[in-house]
Amino acid sequence: MTVTVHPLPHRLRWAVADGVALTGRALAHWVRQPAQAIVGLLFPVLLVLMFGYLFGGAMSVPGGGDYREFLLPGMFAMTMAFGIESTYAAVATDTARGVTDRFRSLPMAPSAVVAGRAAADLLHSAAGLAVMLACGLAVGWQWRAGAPAALAAVGLLLLLRFALIWVGIHLALVLRRPESVVVLQILVWPVGFTSNAFVAPDTMPGPLAALAQWNPLSATVAACRELFGNPGWRGESFAAQHAVALAVAWPLLLIAVFLPLAVHRYRRLSR
Fold it and tell me: CA-to-CA distance for 171 and 184, rounded, in angstroms?
């Protein structure tokens, strides 16, 4: 039996082509079943309206400023975090129904299934972020530090989402059951609210404040407030003083850990 070993450029083109095909598959699902995608896009808008108008009058911003401008960068980051649930549900459903096993039986690159899902979810998240930005502008939010800084903030938000995609893919391949997404929801909400997205950490009790300061979500929120030129909290801790650096470092660390774990777990699904 002769085994053909293709050169690296050929294998890379093969992997990219397979990944693009599976990205198109995921996007086609959203086109054919738009209700779920629309609800996912509008839910963060509801949160903005609820927190900005129902609770906003009772909130004070550290150092002064409009609460909605303080809130919106936090809601942008929360939208990126909430997306981990849809990633988990899609991958776990394919695994439970045997779709992933059928993909594994085809002559395709082993990384294409997870890479295609990651690319599709990132595109969906970019659309959701665009909706949130439009919602923010509609309620009076503005970026005040120039277009390049604003684009950098958007890049940090998408970097956080890309990192969380790989966390969701890995957890879905480990647990494999779509209904266990409830467990993930129970974890995501406390992580989101134990951050600086809605209030400054110095308003929290001591241990909770320290946890909020070092929350990866808090780093992205603080960095976005700085880059958008919105009011925010600037504490004396290392995390508060180096928010932009941490907003890059935390997602890169998550990617470095969970991307290889997700690919490795996918390859070992049948064992």
Answer: 9
Residue 12 has pLDDT above 90, yes or no: no
The CA distance from 176 to 116, in Å, is: 18
DSSP code of 58? G
Q: Give me the DSSP letters along 184-250.
A: HHHHHHHHHHSSSSSS-GGGS-HHHHHHHHT-HHHHHHHHHHHHHT------SSHHHHTHHHHHHHH
User: Which pTM does this prediction carry?
Assistant: 0.86
> Mean pLDDT in the chain?
81
Q: Which residues 6+ apart lie within 8 Å of 68 measured at CB?
A: 52, 56, 136, 139, 140, 141
User: How many beta carbons lie within 10 A of that of residue 191, not counting itself?
Assistant: 15
Give the pLDDT of residue 48: 79
